[in-house]
């Protein structure tokens, strides 16, 4: 099964996820999402696959989150597009790593268990 993993190379959890994927012999491609930010449509698809809302995968501790006042944004169906647009424009706001698999599944792979779930093991 082929996968794509969105990473920030400076992130220890991303490096750990890559090590585990390599140890398992996984077939994957890397997306450096800070240099190649996901579009609004891509984020909507990933959120649908994750079964999560944008605020569920937002990094609220980032300086840009404070600049935007993200913590005070409403978490409603009406505000959903605003969150997604902000995350596409400021990819540092996106939790990482995210693994998407060709079977339609996706995981926020911050733990070894989540990486294994993405691998189906």
Automatic annotation (TrEMBL):
CDD domains: ArsC_ArsC (cd03034). InterPro entries: Arsenate_reductase, Arsenate_reductase-like, Thioredoxin-like_sf. The keyword Oxidoreductase applies. It comes from the Bacteria. Transmembrane segments: none annotated. Pfam families: ArsC. The keyword Oxidoreductase applies. Keywords: Oxidoreductase. Belongs to the ArsC family. This is Arsenate reductase family protein.
């Amino acid at each position: 099964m082929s996968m794509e993993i969105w990473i920030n190379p400076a992130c220890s959890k991303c490096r750990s996820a890559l090590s585990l994927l390599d140890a398992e012999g996984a077939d994957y491609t890397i997306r450096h999402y800070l240099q190649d930010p996901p579009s609004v449509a891509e984020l909507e698809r990933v959120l649908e696959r994750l079964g999560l809302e944008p605020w569920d995968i937002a990094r609220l501790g980032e300086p840009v989150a404070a600049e935007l006042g993200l913590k005070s944004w409403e978490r409603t169906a009406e505000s959903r597009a605003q969150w997604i647009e902000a995350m596409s424009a400021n990819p540092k706001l996106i939790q990482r790593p995210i693994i998407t698999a060709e079977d339609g599944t996706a995981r926020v792979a911050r733990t070894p268990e989540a990486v294994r779930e993405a691998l189906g093991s």
